[in-house]
Amino acid sequence: MGKIFYNKCYLCEIKKDRPDNFEIDHLIPVSNNEALKYEWRNLYLCCMECNGYKSDEFINILDPCQDDVELDIIYELMPIDHQPRFYASSPQNKTINNTVTLLEKVHNGDDVKSINKTASLRNAIDRRAKQLMQAMLNFFRANAKEDELAKQKSLREIKEIVSRYSPYTMLMRSLAREYQFEDLFD
């Protein structure tokens, strides 16, 4: 299962060394269908925090193994603090809207306690976004100086940060897309 999810939580995309550092979430809560309790297609790697936020409240969300979440959800990082924001590409689609609501809750909290609890995730995303911004800035500087070696080094770093194997892929890709680095996506 770790290989399928690249050792990342399917909701917040935090990366951990080993899949046994995660909990298992039932995409469709088993309270709705006991037969799904051990169904492989219903079991997802999830960090403890996200598993707690999802609970049985969210029953109709996108399946990242079946749905194209990269197209269904618009990911955005705010310019100053890189606070994550999520929007439905089709606002009339209830499943996408439910997923957006869950992602907002997971990343930004929905009350004072959860806002404080999710701050470490936002800080980690901010640090990663700053790494990406620095790599892109290094690329543009190297390009202006026609320094091919520095350009290639920067491109490798950008490619690593936006890789599906890296943490916070979807949010980092949203930032890289603004500067036309889509050709580096795997």
Structure, described:
- The chain has 186 residues and is mostly helical.
- The model has no long low-confidence stretch (mean pLDDT 92).
- α6 packs antiparallel against α7 and α6 packs parallel to α8 (169-178).
- 47% of the residues lie in helices and 10% in strands.
- The strands form 2 sheets. Strands 1-2 form a two-stranded antiparallel ribbon.
- β3 (73-77) and β4 (84-88) form a beta hairpin.
- The chain has a domain at 119-184.
In short:
By secondary structure, the protein is mainly alpha-helical.
Topology, please?
Layout: H1 2-5, E1 23-26, E2 43-46, H2 48-54, H3 69-72, E3 73-77, E4 84-88, H4 94-108, H5 112-117, H6 119-145, H7 148-161, H8 169-178
Antiparallel strand pairs: 1-2, 3-4
Which segments are poorly predicted (pLDDT under 50) over 5 or more consecutive residues? Answer: none
Give the number of helices: 8
Distance between the termini: 20 Å
Question: What is the string of helix and strand elements?
Answer: HEEHHEEHHHHH
Averaged pLDDT: 92
By helix and strand content, what is the structural category?
Answer: mainly alpha
* Gyration radius from CA atoms, angstroms: 18 Å
**What is the helix content?**
40-55%
